[in-house]
Write a structure and sequence with these properties.
By secondary structure, the protein is mainly beta. The protein has four domains: about 1-40, no CATH class; about 50-90, no CATH class; about 90-140; about 140-185, Seminal Fluid Protein  PDC-109 (Domain B). The protein is built from two helices and twelve strands, in the order αβββββββββαβββ. It has helices at about 20-40, 150-155; strands spanning about 60, 70-75, 75-80, 95, 100-110, 115-120, 125-130, 130-135, 150, 165-170, 175-180, 180-185. The strands form three sheets. A five-stranded antiparallel β-sheet has the order 4-5-6-7-8, with no helix packed on it. Strands 9-10-11-12 form a four-stranded mixed β-sheet. Strand 6 (about 115-120) and strand 7 form a beta hairpin. The longest helix is centred in the first third of the chain and has 19 residues, at about 20-40. It is rod-shaped and about 105 Å long.
Protein backbone atom coordinates (compact mmCIF):
# COMPACT_ATOMS: atom_id res chain seq x y z
CA UNK A 1 0.00 0.00 0.00
CA UNK A 2 1.28 3.45 -0.87
CA UNK A 3 1.87 6.06 1.80
CA UNK A 4 -1.28 8.07 2.51
CA UNK A 5 -0.99 11.84 2.91
CA UNK A 6 -3.21 13.67 5.39
CA UNK A 7 -4.83 16.83 4.06
CA UNK A 8 -4.07 19.39 6.78
CA UNK A 9 -6.03 22.14 5.01
CA UNK A 10 -5.07 25.72 4.24
CA UNK A 11 -5.03 26.99 7.83
CA UNK A 12 -5.77 26.15 11.47
CA UNK A 13 -9.45 27.06 11.48
CA UNK A 14 -10.12 27.01 7.74
CA UNK A 15 -12.26 23.87 7.94
CA UNK A 16 -10.95 22.53 4.63
CA UNK A 17 -8.66 19.84 6.10
CA UNK A 18 -9.27 16.18 6.77
CA UNK A 19 -11.47 15.02 9.69
CA UNK A 20 -9.67 13.63 12.75
CA UNK A 21 -11.16 10.19 12.13
CA UNK A 22 -10.00 10.11 8.52
CA UNK A 23 -6.56 11.52 9.41
CA UNK A 24 -5.91 8.94 12.15
CA UNK A 25 -7.20 6.17 9.89
CA UNK A 26 -4.42 7.14 7.43
CA UNK A 27 -1.88 7.30 10.28
CA UNK A 28 -2.84 3.75 11.35
CA UNK A 29 -2.61 2.49 7.77
CA UNK A 30 0.81 4.11 7.29
CA UNK A 31 2.16 2.59 10.51
CA UNK A 32 0.71 -0.83 9.64
CA UNK A 33 2.33 -0.61 6.20
CA UNK A 34 5.70 0.31 7.76
CA UNK A 35 5.49 -2.59 10.21
CA UNK A 36 4.67 -5.00 7.38
CA UNK A 37 7.68 -3.78 5.36
CA UNK A 38 10.08 -4.52 8.24
CA UNK A 39 9.68 -8.25 7.64
CA UNK A 40 8.38 -8.02 4.10
CA UNK A 41 8.48 -10.65 1.41
CA UNK A 42 8.19 -9.34 -2.13
CA UNK A 43 7.38 -11.26 -5.28
CA UNK A 44 8.13 -9.87 -8.70
CA UNK A 45 10.28 -6.83 -9.38
CA UNK A 46 11.19 -4.37 -6.62
CA UNK A 47 12.47 -0.95 -7.62
CA UNK A 48 14.47 1.06 -5.11
CA UNK A 49 14.48 4.73 -6.09
CA UNK A 50 16.95 6.00 -3.51
CA UNK A 51 19.71 4.64 -1.27
CA UNK A 52 19.13 1.41 0.58
CA UNK A 53 21.21 1.29 3.74
CA UNK A 54 22.14 -1.84 5.67
CA UNK A 55 23.02 -1.38 9.31
CA UNK A 56 25.20 -3.85 11.21
CA UNK A 57 23.72 -7.34 11.09
CA UNK A 58 21.06 -6.36 8.49
CA UNK A 59 20.46 -8.78 5.62
CA UNK A 60 18.67 -8.82 2.29
CA UNK A 61 17.71 -12.28 1.11
CA UNK A 62 17.38 -12.72 -2.65
CA UNK A 63 15.54 -15.82 -3.79
CA UNK A 64 13.08 -18.22 -2.30
CA UNK A 65 14.77 -21.59 -2.01
CA UNK A 66 17.75 -23.31 -0.43
CA UNK A 67 19.91 -21.63 -3.08
CA UNK A 68 19.19 -18.12 -1.80
CA UNK A 69 21.73 -15.36 -2.13
CA UNK A 70 22.10 -13.05 0.85
CA UNK A 71 23.52 -9.54 0.92
CA UNK A 72 24.59 -8.66 4.42
CA UNK A 73 26.30 -5.98 6.41
CA UNK A 74 28.00 -6.54 9.73
CA UNK A 75 30.69 -4.88 11.78
CA UNK A 76 33.12 -6.91 9.62
CA UNK A 77 31.96 -5.18 6.41
CA UNK A 78 29.78 -6.02 3.41
CA UNK A 79 29.34 -9.50 2.05
CA UNK A 80 27.59 -11.60 -0.55
CA UNK A 81 26.80 -15.20 0.30
CA UNK A 82 25.36 -17.80 -2.04
CA UNK A 83 24.46 -21.40 -1.28
CA UNK A 84 24.24 -22.20 -5.03
CA UNK A 85 26.89 -23.58 -7.31
CA UNK A 86 28.74 -20.30 -7.83
CA UNK A 87 29.64 -17.19 -5.87
CA UNK A 88 30.82 -14.00 -7.49
CA UNK A 89 32.19 -11.00 -5.65
CA UNK A 90 33.09 -7.77 -7.39
CA UNK A 91 35.17 -5.11 -5.72
CA UNK A 92 38.55 -3.45 -6.33
CA UNK A 93 40.00 -5.90 -3.81
CA UNK A 94 38.38 -9.12 -2.65
CA UNK A 95 39.92 -10.71 0.45
CA UNK A 96 38.75 -14.14 1.63
CA UNK A 97 40.17 -14.90 5.05
CA UNK A 98 40.46 -18.12 7.00
CA UNK A 99 42.09 -16.22 9.85
CA UNK A 100 44.15 -13.07 10.31
CA UNK A 101 47.35 -14.68 8.97
CA UNK A 102 46.09 -16.64 5.93
CA UNK A 103 43.97 -15.13 3.17
CA UNK A 104 43.20 -15.34 -0.52
CA UNK A 105 43.38 -11.97 -2.23
CA UNK A 106 42.03 -11.00 -5.64
CA UNK A 107 43.13 -7.63 -6.96
CA UNK A 108 44.95 -5.92 -9.81
CA UNK A 109 48.74 -5.91 -9.84
CA UNK A 110 50.77 -2.70 -10.23
CA UNK A 111 50.25 -2.85 -14.02
CA UNK A 112 46.46 -3.16 -13.70
CA UNK A 113 46.41 -6.88 -14.57
CA UNK A 114 44.25 -9.20 -12.46
CA UNK A 115 46.03 -11.49 -10.02
CA UNK A 116 45.08 -13.88 -7.25
CA UNK A 117 47.44 -14.50 -4.38
CA UNK A 118 47.53 -16.79 -1.38
CA UNK A 119 49.05 -14.84 1.49
CA UNK A 120 50.50 -15.88 4.81
CA UNK A 121 51.54 -13.38 7.46
CA UNK A 122 50.99 -10.49 4.98
CA UNK A 123 53.43 -12.02 2.45
CA UNK A 124 52.43 -13.33 -0.97
CA UNK A 125 53.30 -17.04 -1.05
CA UNK A 126 51.53 -18.16 -4.25
CA UNK A 127 50.60 -15.69 -7.00
CA UNK A 128 48.73 -16.42 -10.22
CA UNK A 129 48.66 -13.93 -13.08
CA UNK A 130 48.31 -14.14 -16.84
CA UNK A 131 52.09 -14.83 -16.86
CA UNK A 132 51.79 -17.98 -14.74
CA UNK A 133 52.28 -18.99 -11.11
CA UNK A 134 54.99 -17.67 -8.80
CA UNK A 135 55.83 -19.47 -5.55
CA UNK A 136 57.65 -17.55 -2.82
CA UNK A 137 59.37 -19.86 -0.35
CA UNK A 138 59.60 -23.66 -0.48
CA UNK A 139 57.21 -25.79 -2.52
CA UNK A 140 56.56 -29.30 -1.23
CA UNK A 141 55.12 -31.73 -3.76
CA UNK A 142 53.72 -35.03 -2.50
CA UNK A 143 53.06 -36.48 -5.96
CA UNK A 144 55.37 -35.82 -8.90
CA UNK A 145 56.67 -32.82 -10.82
CA UNK A 146 56.57 -32.87 -14.59
CA UNK A 147 58.80 -30.39 -16.39
CA UNK A 148 57.90 -28.91 -19.73
CA UNK A 149 58.64 -31.32 -22.58
CA UNK A 150 60.07 -29.42 -25.55
CA UNK A 151 61.94 -30.22 -28.73
CA UNK A 152 65.30 -28.55 -29.26
CA UNK A 153 63.66 -26.10 -31.71
CA UNK A 154 60.93 -25.21 -29.15
CA UNK A 155 63.56 -24.83 -26.41
CA UNK A 156 65.62 -22.48 -28.58
CA UNK A 157 62.54 -20.34 -29.30
CA UNK A 158 62.06 -19.63 -25.56
CA UNK A 159 63.01 -16.36 -23.93
CA UNK A 160 65.28 -18.34 -21.65
CA UNK A 161 66.55 -17.36 -18.23
CA UNK A 162 69.17 -19.00 -16.02
CA UNK A 163 67.56 -21.57 -13.73
CA UNK A 164 64.98 -22.90 -16.21
CA UNK A 165 64.63 -26.68 -16.41
CA UNK A 166 63.02 -28.63 -19.28
CA UNK A 167 62.90 -32.16 -20.67
CA UNK A 168 64.30 -32.10 -24.23
CA UNK A 169 62.33 -34.67 -26.30
CA UNK A 170 64.77 -34.44 -29.23
CA UNK A 171 67.74 -35.48 -27.05
CA UNK A 172 65.72 -37.36 -24.38
CA UNK A 173 67.57 -35.41 -21.66
CA UNK A 174 66.76 -33.14 -18.75
CA UNK A 175 68.34 -29.78 -19.48
CA UNK A 176 68.85 -26.65 -17.46
CA UNK A 177 69.76 -23.10 -18.34
CA UNK A 178 73.11 -22.27 -16.76
CA UNK A 179 75.31 -19.22 -17.40
CA UNK A 180 73.35 -18.34 -20.55
CA UNK A 181 73.49 -21.80 -22.20
CA UNK A 182 71.45 -25.02 -22.07
CA UNK A 183 73.30 -27.92 -20.39
CA UNK A 184 72.39 -31.57 -19.83
CA UNK A 185 71.61 -32.21 -16.18
CA UNK A 186 72.42 -35.92 -16.19
Amino acid sequence: MAKQIINIGSGEQAGDGESLRSAFDKVNDNFSNTAELAGATFTGDVDIESDLSLRDDDKIKLGGSLLDTVLLHSDQGFGLISDGTELRLRAPTVKLMSNADVFLLGEDDTNGNPKVSLNYNNSERLVTTSDGIDVQGNAVVTGFVQFGSLTTAERDALTAANGMVIYNTTDNKFQGRENGVWVNLV
